[in-house]
Amino acid sequence: MDKPGEMWWSSSSTALRLDKLAAMSFHLRPPSVDKGVSAFFWALGFFLYLWLGMIAIGVSKGTALVLSAVAGAAIFLYIRLYGEDRATRA
After folding, report:
1. Rg of the chain (C-alpha set)
2. Average pLDDT, the chain
3. CA separation, residue 5 to residues 1, 9, 17, 67 (Å)
4. Which of 24, 42, 52, 63 is the most exposed place for a label (fewest CB within 10 A)?
């Protein structure tokens, strides 16, 4: 060993690490997300969009909050009940 860090970065150890990574290859899948969580994020996004939009066009803050909250709750329920229906494997 001529250099202090040579044992950590030698070409043989790099090849060994690459071989281990190739042997451990696997397919990554996205995490499973519950329908309720998905519905909540959609409702939150629409709520913010409606609330900021109403404030931008001059609707009073209280009215905008109430109308956006009611619409957000309706969107949450709609997506929760009728949202994506996942196909089952036969």
Report:
1. 26
2. 79
3. 9, 7, 17, 65
4. 24
Q: How many Cβ atoms are within 10 Å of 65's Cβ, its own excluded?
A: 16
- Judge if pTM exceeds 0.85: no
The tens digit of pLDDT for each residue in 18-50 reads 666 666 666 677 777 788 888 899 999 999 999
Contact 35, 84 (CB under 8 A): yes
Q: Which two tokens stand for residue 7?
A: 């044992």
Helices (H), the chain: 6-9, 11-23, 35-56, 61-82
Instruction: Quote the CA–CA distance of 62 and 77 in Å, as a whole number.
Output: 23
CB 49 within 8 A of CB 27: no
One-letter amino acid of 21: L
